[in-house]
Amino acid sequence: MMVTKREHWDEVYRTKAANSVSWYQPTPEPSLRALEELQLPATAALIDVGGGASSLADRLLERGWFDLTILDIAAPALDVAKARLQGDAGRVAWIVADVTEWRPGRRYDVWHDRAVFHFLTEPEQRLAYRHALETGTAPGSVVIIATFAPDGPERCSGLPVQRYDAAALAVEFGSAFALERDWREEHTTPGGGRQWFQWCVFRRR
Ligand SMILES: C[S@@+](CC[C@H](N)C(=O)[O-])C[C@H]1O[C@@H](n2cnc3c(N)ncnc32)[C@H](O)[C@@H]1O
């Protein structure tokens, strides 16, 4: 029987401890560093697309950010984050949606995506993602994105991924998004594996 994307991710978060999955980071350091370097005010509206159970929102709430949205295809992922945040969960907007089918109802200053876009292996999925991105951002908005690098793994969570360097990501995002910064990061998985990520910061023209 075909397992849908949503069923796959629901199952992952129902059956695995959040700190045991390969993409787990004790602290989302590259993202926090990128936000610091951008010198964004804490009033900025940020969406973490495919945020899963990441602690990015926790760390930003501590730093005084208050306009935070976390979107994920898997409700159980958001349940993990909400349980961890306890009373502070009410300070975050939660959206259960497939980003390729979602139409944002507002615009965000920061669109953050760590390890989600790379699952879109079909051109039409990437087109749908870009439609959401274009609806959910405005000129001046920044996009912080991380995918597996060309020498990164070919699969993540058992699913095939498309790997990118900065130039290839810039082609995907198109001329409406100017590449401001790019760097590579070697992520260490909880099991001690090493994975090369490509990070990019784009600004919408
Ligand atoms: C590799 S995990 C990364 C999670 C998080 N960004 C982090 O860095 O910890 C990929 C996440 O994307 C979510 N996801 C996968 N495909 C998605 C889609 N089409 N729309 C929204 N979320 C999706 C998964 O449920 C999962 O939480």
TrEMBL record:
Gene3D superfamilies: Vaccinia Virus protein VP39 (3.40.50.150). SUPFAM superfamilies: S-adenosyl-L-methionine-dependent methyltransferases (SSF53335). Keywords: Methyltransferase, Transferase. One of its GO terms (biological process) is methylation. Residues 47-132 form the Methyltransferase domain. InterPro entries: Methyltransf_25, SAM-dependent_MTases_sf. The keyword Transferase applies. It comes from Rhizobium vallis. One of its GO terms (molecular function) is methyltransferase activity. CDD domains: AdoMet_MTases. The keyword Ligase does not apply. This is Class I SAM-dependent methyltransferase.
